[in-house]
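Re: Re: ligand-bound prediction request (bumping)

Still looking for help on this. To restate: I need the protein modeled with zinc ion bound, output as structure tokens. Inputs repeated here so nobody has to scroll up.
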Amino acid sequence: MSTSRPENPAHARITRVAPGIHFVEGPASNWVVLTDGDSVTLVDTGYPADLAAVEHSLETCAPGARLTTVLITHGHSDHIGTLPELAKKYAPRVLAAAEEIPNIRREELHQIGIGDILPRLAKPRYARWTLHAIRAGGLAPIEVREVEPVVPGIALTLSGHTVIPRLTPGHTPGHLIFALPEANALITGDALITAHPTVSTRGPQALGDIWHWDAPAARRVFAELAEETCDRLIILPGHGPSHFPA
Ligand SMILES: [Zn+2]
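Reply:
Sorry for the wait, this slipped through. Here it is.
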């Protein structure tokens, strides 16, 4: 593992997890870059304002390679924010769970709104998060039409890497996590995170109930994942730093 903080105006931190597998900690949410040198697969895409950081990370991790595929954990604006621009510029295949596609297409919206946040705005951590989310384009309309469904449990080979999607509904109806068996790693999206601006706790944890579409289901998913990953798997979360087994 090596970590670098390249000259990057958006301060994304890139960690090489295994050959061709890079974890990128963006300003407020994370993404993963998979590459075999010729092609790149991106897992999640940050907020709309993260486009320069996303493109910088692609160029740093895979100079000259073509963005062929974007995999989506779920359709929240901090995970699909740059997708409309990436789709326009690079025309990658976009893959997500069938259950999540209406959320990504904005035919339905399963996302926290201002009404949910308002009662908490007196807390400085929530106020800071809200300000960042708004500045980063969190309220901007994001809509992506071309999305293909993946079949959970069926391994994909993307940019030379085996990726196994797994359906983990709770945070959203079609939330996916992705196993990377060759790296002994799990991309956990928002089903399991390691830090969030609204809390002071660090390390593997669940997001609070207000962030979830179905909080009891999200708590069940988190309990399963916590048990499964505990000191065995590298965790690459949607928020917070990567977590390596002791
Ligand atoms: Zn998120």
